[in-house]
Amino acid sequence: MIVVGLSSGTSVDGIDVAAADLEIDGDTVALTPLGHLEVPFAPELRATVLDALPPAATTLDAVARIDTDLGHAFAAAARRGIDELAGGAAELIASHGQTLYHWVEDGHVRGTLQLGQPAWIAEATGLPVVSDLRARDVAAGGHGAPLASVLDVLLLGERAAHAGGPVAALNLGGIANVTVVGPTGDTAAFDTGPANALLDAAVRAATGEHRDTDGARAARGTVDEHALALLRADPFYALRPPKSTGKELFDPGYVDRVLGEHDVTDRLDDLLATLVELTATTVADALRPYGVREVLVSGGGAHNPAVVAALRHHLAPARLAPIDDAGLPGDGKEALLFALLGFLTWHGVASTVPSCTGARAPTIAGRISPGAQPLRLPEPAPPPSRLRVTTTGTV
């Protein structure tokens, strides 16, 4: 089955699109990536979404308009994925949408809201759409995150066995999250704290730019140890997994609230160097108890040399490598994840990992919007235990 996956992360940069040919072969899901691309958001839509994120106030009128406008944007991205990546032959769309709010209270997730009305995608493509992929796990007592854990666990199990110790997948979006897979199948996954969220907010507030390109400013700066200590004191870091967070906590005003009148906020390069160190040390602290041998990194932060250098230093002696080493394109991983989730849902397979999300039991993710034809679901498949990534015609 050819599935197009759509994703937009907490950085709200654009829509990641990937197409994959997926097949269940006994206890294995075979995934052949067919290509990936990024569709930037129109500047006005991106600004509207960012302006609606907590702690900003918003209205139901704004929410309805954002849901519709995101639906149109995801529909256009899906059409490009079908035409440019799948040769017009896709059979299913899986859309994560855009997270607007992740409701965490006393360490428990009470609800989560992703917008991007799937009806627009189904109408534009004629294909069924799997969406709202987090809510069922939340209803089962989980965090609805990190959803990447199902892909990571299936992909890295054999790698951990060969390594003779735990390996981890690290995604650096607006928020950093990890999945740890042990050689005997024990797993854990959770958010570790901010990755790009605070860095991008600092740059945007000071310069109007979207990001610190190539980490150049952070590389010129000097870490302010006092400011770093204040930032590292946030109670979130002491919470035991499973745990999740988002821009509801690490919002654009977070640094000013924590640091107050500390003058590092007036020295952009030093502030960025300090925030890079915050990301690297909190990731390393989170992974240290597991004794990981290898960390495979993906996400936008993997393109920031300052972040990668800091991670390599603090994670040592663990090896830091791109997720591409495991056969997945780093820039396409998130969208391929949602293609996999949609595929599993279509085949009646639970796609959440309770040891990673904290749910009471595995759940089948999402809801299905019919396309132009009536729904005809296949017989449920047995749960797979591993993922095999192939290239076209080659294992």
Automatic annotation (TrEMBL):
GO terms for molecular function: kinase activity. It catalyses: 1,6-anhydro-N-acetyl-beta-muramate + ATP + H2O = N-acetyl-D-muramate 6-phosphate + ADP + H(+). Keywords: ATP-binding, Carbohydrate metabolism, Kinase, Nucleotide-binding, Transferase. Pathway: Amino-sugar metabolism; 1,6-anhydro-N-acetylmuramate degradation; Cell wall biogenesis; peptidoglycan recycling. Residues 367-395 are annotated as: Disordered. ATP binds at residues 9-16. InterPro entries: Anhydro_N_Ac-Mur_kinase (IPR005338), ATPase_NBD (IPR043129). Coiled coil: none annotated. It comes from the Bacteria. It holds the Pfam family AnmK. Its EC number is 2.7.1.170. SUPFAM superfamilies: Actin-like ATPase domain. Catalyzes the specific phosphorylation of 1,6-anhydro-N-acetylmuramic acid (anhMurNAc) with the simultaneous cleavage of the 1,6-anhydro ring, generating MurNAc-6-P. Is required for the utilization of anhMurNAc either imported from the medium or derived from its own cell wall murein, and thus plays a role in cell wall recycling. Belongs to the anhydro-N-acetylmuramic acid kinase family. PANTHER family: ANHYDRO-N-ACETYLMURAMIC ACID KINASE. This is Anhydro-N-acetylmuramic acid kinase. It comes from Pseudonocardia parietis. The gene is anmK.
